[in-house]
Fold this protein.
Amino acid sequence: MSGKLLVHRLQATRKSKVSVNGLTYSGISSETCNSCHNRGKRIGLSYQGIMEFPYGSPYNAKGGKQPKLHTKNYLFIKDDLHHQMQSRPGNPVGGLLCQDCHTSIDMHGDGNLFGTTLAQVEVECADCHGIPDRFPWELPIGYGEEFQQTIAATPRGLADELPAFMIEATNYEAEDGYLLMARGNPFGNVVKKGNKVILHSASGLDFDVPVLKELKPTDGWKDQAAEVAMSSVAGHMDSMECYACDADWAPQCSGCHITVDYSKGKTDID
């Protein structure tokens, strides 16, 4: 037998540090998630801001193509806001990992076999950011879900403690309480501190989450477009998902599989 033995290191939370090539880090990298989530909706790739394309450029110094990932070539377009290295002023440099939002049973199921991703994913933007006139803990259970049923007006509140299956990893102080997701399950890493929301990333970074009810009276919007989208036109928050505006682009099947020829005598279906 020749070669080198494989070295396996567990990656999970801040408790599990990984040291390789002189670097030490924690958390599950987005690239790990993308080992599977690079097909279908390609949601993992969109989060990182890369799009599958056939050319392999920009070419290297010897004129060769870029190395392939998941057997394909990719072009960087623009990554998700939560993935970008530069956050709001006062926050550390570095983006969020997939596991920072998709925690607990929202990760890979709650025992049910869902027919759509829509039904599988529990976390909603308002679970951390709230809406312009209500904090996250003032929203009712079910807010933001798409099951088209009447929901109660009772505030969801906070969790004082975590279920047993969530306390084996890194535990964070509850402060004023753990925030709850849309279906009532707690985040283990997102807490309320006064009117602030603190997200503890598995990477070791701590972020102040922009809370819309705090931004509105102080005019703390990132730009005028954000104010219009989330506050000035109230109907947006009632009828649209946040990522309808936040996601600048998305891969389309037509980009690779359909040829459009507008030369003389041709129509848009030729």
